[in-house]
Design brief:
The complex is a heterodimer of chains A (197) and B (108). Chain A is of the alpha+beta class. Chain A is built from 7 helices and 6 strands, in the order ααβααβαββββαα. With 108 residues, chain B is mostly helical. Chain B has one domain. Classes of the chains: A alpha+beta (197), B mainly alpha (108). At the A-B interface, strand 1, helix 3, helix 4, strand 2 and strand 5 of A face helix 3 of B.
Chain lengths: 197, 108
Amino acid sequence: MHIRNMTFILATSILAAATMAAPARAQTVQLPAPPPVEKELAARASNVTEVTLGKNMLAFAAKFMNGKDKDDESTRQLIQGLDGIYVREYEFDKEGQFSAEEIEQLRKYFETSEWSPLVRERERKGGEATDVMVKLVNGEVHGMFILEVAPKELTIVLILGPVRMEDLGKLKGLGGLGALGDLEKSTKAKDKKGGAQ
Amino acid sequence: MEFEPMEEFEQQLREALERRPAPPSLKRKLMASRRAERPATPMPAWQRLAASVALAAVLGGAVTWRHVEERRKGEAAREQVLTALRITGHALDQINTQLAAHSRAPQE
């Protein structure tokens, strides 16, 4: 009887450990599949840049950033803990090559409840729009989404994993990133007034 | 008369076991078959050396090719990361400029 009890306890412990380990494994964030509208946009664009890098590929790329120059080292530090990078840049020959509905489809595809908007800007006249969203986990940025719409250009950036803004700022051409947080309030105020909407 | 069959048998046995000289061609045949069975003469030293060098070259080539290929893939991945960050940086720069312009606007 005693042995049977011990076996039961052991089996229960193993099952519990396995159950607890499953969510830990599931926490590894996967990059989403490309949205369906993307193909159509790419077909119309005159210049397309598509970059999709998963965790393994980022780790592999990091091996080849040997830190010979400062940017290399900063980039390596930045990408080391990331789960994935998904970037799309579409350049169009002329304006009106994409509709507001298509942009909305893109926005809805990536926008989920776990993302908090940081910047949201809409310009009615030119049809320009900017969305910056961050995924916060315990007060830390664990993802960044940028959707930038210009009359002849469309940019989607999705970075998954812990993003350190200070590391981003170290990279050339990325000056003033810290100002994003400071400007958040004023942008929201503008949105309420309807100036930028 | 009773023992006659036995004697006949013994006679047959004796004849069967009688020592007879081997036919003269037997030795030649045996030697020929032995030669045929003998393994080929070992490879000369220079041939062995050449084979070793060739094998080493093939293995070395394969290792080098793999290393070069991995390096090429790594460099491509690195370029992709830099492209992605360049686009991200460009987008963030534009956002910063826009936000800075908006924050300046009310003051003006």
